[in-house]
Amino acid sequence: PAGMTALVFNTPRAVFSDPRVRRALILLFDFEWINRTLYAGLFKRTQSYFERSSLSSAGRAADARERALLAPYAADVKPEIMEGTYELPQSSGSGRNRKNQRAAFKLLKEAGYELKDGRLINKQTGRQLEFEILAASTTQEGLLLSFARDVERLGIKVNIRVVDSAQYQSRLTDYDYDMIQSTWSSSLSPGNEQLFRWSEASAKTPGTYNFSGIE
């Protein structure tokens, strides 16, 4: 398996608690433009934690055993996941991601935000939607600045903070960040490392690889 590199939401943070906000930000990530302009089109969008292997569920409908295992959570699993048809949103790659911007803005309005004087404001709190991306290297800045540019077009404030390796590791251990870029390796024999990445126990234990705080 190819593994996965991605931008990670720290989901316990209040700014990302609403799945509609997370979905909107996914829509605003213009992979096609970033890949074409920054990486000469050399990358392919990852659709699975087990990309490029038989363990990937992308493009493959759930079988009878999987459906039985997931039956208690039917209301929480999107039908397109079960059918194997889900794909991350795409853009034209032109740098004008307007279709996805409109869809993102609709989700953000449903989540209680409104655009006021060029700033996306929470109608209940009066605060602008704002988050920080923590980085360990200036080599990440091209990607992060490109993402921030697209997000800021909808009035969202993004701060990119580059820190030294010791401070980065300390903040990673304590989950002291809103968003980071991370890489997960994978193998054809997944085991206990999955609990270290995704379980409720690891989400509440400092120093695990459950960077997204999934429970």
Features:
215 residues, two-stranded antiparallel sheet
Topology:
Blueprint: E1 4-9, H1 19-28, H2 31-38, H3 64-70, H4 79-83, H5 98-110, E2 113-116, E3 119-122, E4 130-135, H6 141-152, E5 157-162, H7 165-173, E6 179-184, H8 193-198, H9 200-203
Parallel strand pairs: 4-5, 4-6
Antiparallel strand pairs: 1-6, 2-3
Structure, briefly:
With 215 residues, the chain is an alpha/beta fold. 34% of the residues lie in helices and 15% in strands.
The low-confidence runs, each spanning 5 or more residues with pLDDT under 50, are none
Shape: globular
Number of strands: 6
- Fraction in helix: 25-40%
Mean pLDDT: 95
User: Nearest-angstrom radius of gyration?
Assistant: 18 Å
Strand content: 5-15%
Structural class: alpha/beta
Major sheet details: 4 strands, mixed
SSE succession: EHHHHHEEEHEHEHH
* Largest sheet, spatial ordering of strands: 1-6-4-5
N-to-C CA distance: 24 Å
Structural account:
The structure is a single chain. The chain has 215 residues and is an alpha/beta fold. 34% of the residues lie in helices and 15% in strands. The chain has nine helices and six strands; from the N terminus they run E-H-H-H-H-H-E-E-E-H-E-H-E-H-H. It has helices spanning 19-28, 31-38, 64-70, 79-83, 98-110, 141-152, 165-173, 193-198, 200-203; strands spanning 4-9, 113-116, 119-122, 130-135, 157-162, 179-184. The strands form two sheets. It has a four-stranded mixed sheet with strand order 1-6-4-5, covered by helices on one side. The chain has a two-stranded antiparallel ribbon with strand order 2-3. A hairpin with a 2-residue loop joins strand 2 and strand 3 (119-122). Helix 1 (19-28) packs antiparallel against helix 5 (98-110). The two termini are 24 Å apart. The mean pLDDT is 95.
